[in-house]
Amino acid sequence: MRATAQAPSKVIISGEHFVVHGGWALAAAIGKRVTVEVEPSDKLAVTSDAFGGSSALSPVSKVVEYMASRYSFSPDLRFSISSEVPGGAGLGSSASTMVAVAAAVSRVKSLELGRGELVECAMVGEQVVHGRPSGVDAAACAYGGVLLYRPGSRPRAVRLDGKRRMLVVFSGSRRSTKRLVSHVADVRARLPAYFSGLAESAADLATLAAERLKEGDMEGLGRLLTYNHAVLSAVGVSTPRLDQLVDLLLSLGCYGAKLTGAGGGGSVLAVTAEGREKRIISEVTKRGFEAFVSVIPVAGVKSWQRP
């Protein structure tokens, strides 16, 4: 029997980095997806365009070997992984991949794992990729929709009464999440009281952003995004290019914008009045950036059997 699984990617609307240290983060699944196909084999093998070929083997194999040991089956499976999610763009490409791998294994081995169990399995691979991930990326990719997340707590779904549109603009610079998480940990160690104050304000921003998003107050949400970018810049995870991109988006009429994900490169998330997105995308494209509109909410991971 063969199986296929597909998982969405994600954006962090508010709270990245501080979530690693116990704060709340607001995240949403978006429509760019990773697809994993799996079938029995005589050995564990991976072909992938998601991590640039064979480099996918280590984190994927860790997930599969963990699941094989925990649920008592042979890890001899062949995986084919394809991705719409650019790596290093702050959109959760690794989490999407690990969640899809776990879901495909669950399906092909008839494990019937719940989403929380899929997140637990995916985190084995995420730790290989990122060192000390919070788990918010994997949770967003598994559960889908929009959620408030804090390590050690069950994700809280944020129910929307309709669709919300957000702009995602790739800065063109890729980054290392592991390095940036380490950098923020160093800031916390050097300036513990200052960091604690920032973490508390970031947690409040995440819950306020959830309220604005739920109410459809995109202008109010935008103001929170821009302020959140300033907080992230204060702990050293923004860059001049990201700051300039945020400034550009604001000058083009966006309500607000911020880096999304680890920072140090990657992507910027922005909100604007509905109907302005096409013009703004045209303007940023002229300046060499890639951009797209993400419509949320988006469903989480799904899997199915193949003959």
Give a structural overview.
The protein is of the alpha+beta class and 307 residues long. 43% of the residues lie in helices and 24% in strands. It is built from nine helices and eleven strands. It has helices at 57-71, 93-108, 115-130, 136-143, 177-190, 192-215, 218-234, 240-251, 277-286; strands at 2-14, 25-40, 45-48, 77-83, 146-149, 156-157, 164-170, 256-260, 267-271, 290-296, 302-306. Strand 3, helix 1 (57-71) and strand 4 (77-83) form a beta-alpha-beta unit. The termini are close together.
Structural class: alpha+beta
Q: Ends: how far apart?
A: 6 Å
Mean pLDDT: 89
Rg over C-alpha atoms, rounded to the nearest angstrom: 19 Å
Given the structure, what is the number of helices?
9
The overall number of domains is 2
List keywords for this structure.
alpha+beta, single chain, globular, Alpha-Beta Plaits, 4-stranded antiparallel sheet, 307 residues, 9 helices, 11 strands, 2 domains
Characterize this entry briefly.
The protein is α+β, with helices and mostly antiparallel strands. The protein has helices at 57-71, 93-108, 115-130, 136-143, 177-190, 192-215, 218-234, 240-251, 277-286, and strands spanning 2-14, 25-40, 45-48, 77-83, 146-149, 156-157, 164-170, 256-260, 267-271, 290-296, 302-306.
